[in-house]
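Subject: sequence -> structure tokens, single chain

Hey, anyone have a minute? Need the predicted structure for the following. Not urgent.
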Amino acid sequence: MKSVMLSIFLLFGVIMSGCGAGKSIESQPNTQPNVVATPTPQSTKMEVNNTKPKDSISPSIIKKRPIVCVEAGHQRKANLDLEPNAPGSKIMKAKVSAGTQGYTTKKPEYQLTLEVALKLEQSLKSEYDVIMVRRSNDVNISNSERANICNDAHADLMLRLHGDGNDNHQIKGMTIFYPSADNKYTKTISKPSLDFAKIISDQILIKTKAKSNGVKSRNDLTGFNWLKVPSILIEMGFMTNKTEDLLLSTPEYQDKIVSGIKNGLDAYYLRH
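Reply:
Had a minute. Here:
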């Protein structure tokens, strides 16, 4: 009797050892056949980090940086060879004229415009993609070529910097030009150019307190007629006026012009 009881006891122990903690998933009742095992917290974190770095930015909040093409007017040596005033036009004009110079400073226009252009690049580059038409005075780039540099860059705006001149040395003030709506070559870019011209003019005048000669359209400029992108031309002041000539060459006044342009661009893009 004792041997029988011992055999039963041993058999019961073997059976129980087969039902312990080491049993497989397949041996358990299949009550949820479509449930996939949940990863551990560590594996979940690794998956997230591999697919989306913690410092990534959602594409939906990334804004396009506007492209501003900055042209410093003229160059050290004029190029009086002729080129068409517009694509296919029979009207021919000098590729690049000599520009004016300071009444008192004798500074050439090409030097003044590059000084301001380089400052403008530094001011804009943290928030805008800046394309510089030239960085040196020793270049040979025609007006149509300058326009095409900005076209090829798909610029949002070509910003042209110039100094004004007149035989009447009493005349002074700042003028902003934009492409004419009555010109078949610039009709499509006239309205956005005017929008830029108005707001940038306002901001420059606030900063500089300069006399305003207005915002005006032009249909005769090669640098406008070859364009496919909006543009404005800023005549920063009359270099043939003694007072403005001296003022335009001061770093402080140049900084005010640059600040006004930057504020104008910022204001434009806040509205658009």
